[in-house]
């Protein structure tokens, strides 16, 4: 996992698997730390080849935490297997996924503009 900041959005790039165990716990802890800096997180899943129920639960928990802090958590480029897991669990209706990081970053701007327009 690597991360960088783009404006007020943290971009997190994941590789491997998000499954029950030490790696998933480390992933969760890292993102919880990032949420204290900004509640806007873009998670790039293009390098993730598998996610289990624990991994999905971590993503849902992080989404709730970011929303509770006034932010958002968006997904980028979920692999075919990850996209299928999101479909099977109906989480594709909960998460917004984008094709690439530029599209995801642009969506943060448009959602911010939408909030300000209200």
CATH class: Alpha Beta
Major sheet summary line: 5 strands, mixed
Query: Could you state the CATH homologous superfamily?
Result: STAS domain
Low-confidence stretches: 112-118
Q: List how many beta strands DSSP finds.
A: 5
The largest beta-sheet arranges its strands as 1-2-3-4-5
Radius of gyration: 13 Å
Helix content: 40-55%
Q: Could you write a compact summary of the structure shown?
A:
By secondary structure, the protein is an alpha/beta fold.
Keywords for this entry:
alpha/beta, 29% strand, 5 strands, Transcription Regulator spoIIAA, disordered C terminus, 118 residues
Task: Describe the protein in words.
- With 118 residues, the protein is an alpha/beta fold.
- It has one domain (2-112): STAS domain (Transcription Regulator spoIIAA).
- Helices cover 49% and strands 29% of the residues.
- It has four helices and five strands.
- A five-stranded mixed β-sheet has the order 1-2-3-4-5.
- Helix 1 (22-37) runs parallel beside helix 2.
- The protein is globular, with a radius of gyration of 13 Å.
- The chain starts with a strand and ends with a helix.
SSE map:
Layout: E1 2-6, E2 9-18, H1 22-37, E3 40-51, H2 53-68, E4 72-76, H3 80-88, E5 97-98, H4 101-117
Parallel strand pairs: 2-3, 3-4, 4-5
Antiparallel strand pairs: 1-2
């Amino acid at each position: 996992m690597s991360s960088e900041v783009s404006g007020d959005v943290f971009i997190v790039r994941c590789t491997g698997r998000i499954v029950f165990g030490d790696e998933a716990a480390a992933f969760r802890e890292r993102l919880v730390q990032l949420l204290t800096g900004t509640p806007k997180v873009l998670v790039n899943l293009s390098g993730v080849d598998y996610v289990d129920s624990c991994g999905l639960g971590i993503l849902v928990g992080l989404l709730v935490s970011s929303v509770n802090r006034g932010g958002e958590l968006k997904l980028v480029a979920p692999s075919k297997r990850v996209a299928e897991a999101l479909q099977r669990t109906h989480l594709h209706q909960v998460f917004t996924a984008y094709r690439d990081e530029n599209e995801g970053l642009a969506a943060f701007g448009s959602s911010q503009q939408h909030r300000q327009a209200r």
